[in-house]
Amino acid sequence: MMRDVCVIGIGQTPIGELWEYSLRDLAYQALQGAVKDAGIEQPDALFVANMLAPRLSSQAHLGALIANHVGWRGIEATTVEAACASGGTAFQAAVRAIASGMVDVAAVCGVEKMTDATSGQITAALATAADADYEGAHGASFVALNALIMQRYMHEYHLPHECFAPFSINAHANAVNNPNAMFRKEISFEAYKRSPVIADPINLFDSSPISDGAAAIILCPLEMAKDLSPRGPIKVLGSATATDTVDLAGRQNMIDLYAARLSAHKAYRQAGLEAEDIDVFEVHDAFSIMAALSLEAAGFAEAGHGTDLAQNGDITIQGRIPISTMGGLKGRGHPVGATGVYELVDLVTQLRGEAGANQVANAHIGMTQNIGGTGATVVTHILAKE
Amino acid sequence: MMRDVCVIGIGQTPIGELWEYSLRDLAYQALQGAVKDAGIEQPDALFVANMLAPRLSSQAHLGALIANHVGWRGIEATTVEAACASGGTAFQAAVRAIASGMVDVAAVCGVEKMTDATSGQITAALATAADADYEGAHGASFVALNALIMQRYMHEYHLPHECFAPFSINAHANAVNNPNAMFRKEISFEAYKRSPVIADPINLFDSSPISDGAAAIILCPLEMAKDLSPRGPIKVLGSATATDTVDLAGRQNMIDLYAARLSAHKAYRQAGLEAEDIDVFEVHDAFSIMAALSLEAAGFAEAGHGTDLAQNGDITIQGRIPISTMGGLKGRGHPVGATGVYELVDLVTQLRGEAGANQVANAHIGMTQNIGGTGATVVTHILAKE
């Protein structure tokens, strides 16, 4: 990186079925929160993360739309998309714009409005994250594809379904204390066991919800951050994207997230760190199987042992590697294109020491892993208190 | 810019109704052409420009999809979108990735597959470039919005419709010699006059066609380009995006492209140049009114005098400021998300001196202006022979 980049502001809307707000309203709220938090008037550039608006809101061209709705006339603005990993890639685009010396202050806004459509429209729209010709055309929904992965994983490692329960229980427990979370209630092991099957073996509590929401981040160069940031700058140490085939059939091993492994490796190398240096890890638990695979790919567990971390309590706030600390995709919610930005907002909250009842003790260095499709695009970020 | 960036390879498919090729096939062809032209095996990162695939091909997540289809397993890949300006913004993202020091060799691929859908689906998909709540919801198609601008322009400056004819005549004349152009035939003034009205006052020959196509570019840092580039590197001198309101009603003056003016101004400043230094200008002539407005905004004509340049022959290959030199959007074709990349490919062809019968004499410095929506996002690039 040609110059160091820091986060100086964060903002977010609550996540839920927000029928009273439009797409641009949600983006406005998150961005206003972020610039207020950063103590700035307006950025030089806006990077929007969104996946579904062209289909669910008949709206492309969100960069200019949102920049002008917020009142930032004339500023540079674009949208960055990589399905469910859109948030991470938009953040990366902002980091690079600043690192390149071509932009000073950048805003990232992840926004998604999913609940104004029918469930059929939503299912079809989410399937565009998979391969339309080789998966979608055969009727494979996005949850069905994740179910194939989970089924294979359980088969290969001789694991019962219930060993995934602690992922959902942990996520819900952490969501209770997050005022922006969609599901602020705990769930029990019995409730997990009773929960209806969505696509065998994935049940309701293995799945993140359909949600609306927006999250925003303000970034600037380190030298500027020292003057600007009232809450203390959080520095970007690593930023790496890697890909794999979009279709599951093309993968060398569908229960090893190759792109996640590669992306984490690149980010560790950039930061000069290893997995054991990470104090908190915001995973992409769109389905509980993805949390297990992400932990393995990022080097926190051997292949087939991701669920051990959950069983042993290692993933809780007090554990060895706390994940989904503000509720994760499962408890906080999963407004798809916005999720990668929420993960980073939650991480910044932890690194600032502002996570309240969910604060991870001594959280100095943290990581996010934002996953697009069934693992086709993975963006890893490592951030640290400056 | 923290380090200088160069174009070292270009590739493109012919533009047309390419029913025998899928979206990913088109991208493959353009990217294979570009890496061969650059003399490299594979890039480190891929930036895809696309607007319509989520709606017309039920496919988002094109970055990973295309990277893997081309055989570049694991590399970083994302999609950048700003409606019809997607190509320019993806190129800018690649420039910054390299300038930041985080990527060495980057590929840009603009791809669009429009002709496999019904005209109703295409019209609705193109309307997502406009404001869905304030324009699309009222039935305003994209051509209708451009017609409002043209009507206002003709009214304000007391101009007859026929003064726009030379834009179409020039574009078609130049397309004749471009083997990749969709319409390789000249049109006469009489044919322009006779052409049926699409949305008054826009007629068929004021409008670019619905097209399929893909174009690709390989970039790398200047120091690497000197060793790598068999065709001679083309250096990026300026790269600037600016925005205006997406909805026409929100504009301060709908016949002055504020974002184009601002974007050109930023690019000139970066390059240390002025309009008179530009030898060739690839404009975004999606509609002939847009060519006139872009010439004015970029400083080649006073407000209301863009059509004078066309009337006087200044826009031809031999003219003062040649535009649409390989046919432009009108003659070469307009595969929406790919168009900004085609503009840059055409410009590189000119700067390399490889434009054959359409070669602009002494073309050392050139500019592209890629316009999203009715002028809401404008990306200006200035390139020069190194």
Describe, in plain words, how this protein is organized in 3D.
Two copies of one chain form a homodimer. Chain A has 386 residues and is an alpha/beta fold. Chain A has two domains: 139 residues, Thiolase/Chalcone synthase (Peroxisomal Thiolase, Chain A, domain 1, 3-Layer(aba) Sandwich), CATH 3.40.47; 216 residues, Peroxisomal Thiolase, Chain A, domain 1, CATH 3.40.47.10. Chain A is 36% helix and 18% strand. The first copy, chain A, contains 14 helices and eleven strands. In chain A, the strands form two sheets. Chain A has a nine-stranded mixed beta sheet, with helices on both faces. In chain A, strands 5-6 form a two-stranded antiparallel sheet. In chain A, β10 and β11 form a beta hairpin. The two termini of chain A are 16 Å apart. The relative contact order of chain A is 0.20. The mean pLDDT of chain A is 97. Chains A and B meet through α3, β3, α4, β8 and α10 of A and α3, β3, α4, β8 and α10 of B. β3 of chain A pairs antiparallel with β3 of chain B.
**Low-confidence region ranges of chain A:** none
Largest interface: A-B, 67 and 67 residues
CATH architecture of the largest domain in chain A: 3-Layer(aba) Sandwich
CATH class of the largest domain in chain A: Alpha Beta
Number of strands of chain A: 11
- Span of the ends, CA to CA of chain A: 16 Å
Helix proportion range of chain A: 25-40%
Round the mean pLDDT of chain A to the nearest integer and report it. 97
**Which class do the helix and strand fractions of chain A yield?**
alpha/beta
What does the oligomeric state look like here? homodimer
Biggest sheet record of chain A: 9 strands, mixed
Spatially, the strands of the biggest sheet of chain A line up as 3-2-4-7-1-8-11-10-9
Helix-strand pattern of chain A: EHEHHEHEHHHHEEEHEHEHHHHEE
- β-strand percent of chain A reads 15-25%
